[in-house]
Amino acid sequence: VQLQASGGGLVQPGGSLRLSCAVSGFSLAAYSFGWFRQAPGKEREGVAYYSTSYGETYYPDSVKGRFTMSRDYATNTYYLQMSNLETEDTATYYCAATTMVTAARALGIFGPSIFDSWGQGTLVTVSS
Asked: Which H or E element spans position 104?
């Protein structure tokens, strides 16, 4: 089971960026997924969750309306489209997978501890 995140970079406030998470070793349909971020000196926080078993997505208020999580079963890839980026979005972003069967909102409540497979992270810097 391997996840590899990519697509990070430097973007100006108000700009957009799309992150990718290439998944290998298992089918997307067998796991639920999450995107997380961690800024220096801060705890890791979730920004998007997809429950495969419930077929739904959940976003916390901090990114709702700006971030969109999607997936491509043909290429076994998850995406995080980020728009209207703010300086506060600067962080290293990670994708992760879990076998837990629960709703997307519940994935958010449980947080990073229930995700057992992680990508290596990709840095997003929002700055003018």
From this structure: helix 104-110
Task: Quote the CA–CA distance of 10 and 8 in Å, as a whole number.
Answer: 7
Helix residue spans in 1-128 (DSSP H): 104-110
CA-wise closest residue to 125 among 79, 93, 91, 80: 91
Integer angstrom CA distances of residue 105 from 32, 72, 87, 93: 12, 22, 26, 20
Task: Quote the distance between the C-alpha of residue 88 and its chain's center.
Answer: 16
Please give the Cα distance from 33 to 125 (Å, whole number): 23
Instruction: Write out pLDDT tens, residues 33-61.
Output: 999 999 999 999 999 999 999 999 999 99
Distance CA 100, CA 62 (A): 24
Q: How far apart are CA 86 and CA 14, in angstroms?
A: 6
